[in-house]
Amino acid sequence: MGLIHIPISRVDQKFLNEMQEYMTHELGNKPNTVRNKLQRFRGLVNEAFKQGLISKDPYYQFERVKREKVSRAKLGEKEINRIVNLELEKGSELWHVRNYFIFSFYMAGIRFSDICTLTPENLVDGRLKYEMKKTGSTKNIKLLEPAIEILKGYNTDKKGYIFPILNEVYKDEFVLRKKISSKNVIVNRHLKELAKQAKIDENISFHVSRHSFANYALQKGMGVYSISKALAHSNLKTTEVYLKSFDEELLDNEMENIFK
């Protein structure tokens, strides 16, 4: 399917089936990713249907792949500390990647796409204020001491980005997204090496910092509403689904403790 132009009039149930097959088998997308992409595409199709550009709703009786139950990888407090305490050469790639990951953990799971483009202008009166790329909404959160310590080793008073992830400031949004995506792959590779050195079995990626923060906050008794605000979710339902697997583990631990 690739980068080709397809008339909206050709979008029918057969097209949706082919699209689903392509994403599943050619792109290797997971079921939940396929479902989410099809849901976003549905918005375009609905608009075309309203305007009479297509005569039938192709999504009527269309069967999407079933949603997979998600098990969210996360690190516990001891594992986070093992990464923090690794002896790494200052200025090395692993040293930088550890800083990015730990900074994200202490800053309520700031996403990789956002950490890449932070500038000194995002640091305001002891707070981190930035526009989230995923949602376009603004996040304003207090800079905690461990995060401040990490920032001391980076560019916080000059032009350009704070962290040396991207080589230059990219004005073109498409180019920027591609650069961030390629850097994310490299950072995730380094994170796996950090996990290996810290003797952590979990298969971690940068997004695990976000899961780890949410799990840590839950373990420490932070309420769902506060966790939702910290993660900048649009509604509590999203947070409840996000925390479900962590909540089950917390219950398991509490059950074990009362019968010791």
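(the above was protein one; protein two follows)
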Amino acid sequence: MALKGGRVYAMGRSEEVPTEDNLQKIYGVKVKVFQEYRAVVLDNFL
């Protein structure tokens, strides 16, 4: 589950919720999600 502004924004399995699109919309940052490593990296560090 992911919250935005105190409300449920996305709900699902751990592989489904923390997507690049969801994280950008929730936190306002561009990221790269590596599901095979279970890692999230800020786009500025790539």
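Reviewer note on protein two: The chain has one domain: 2-45.
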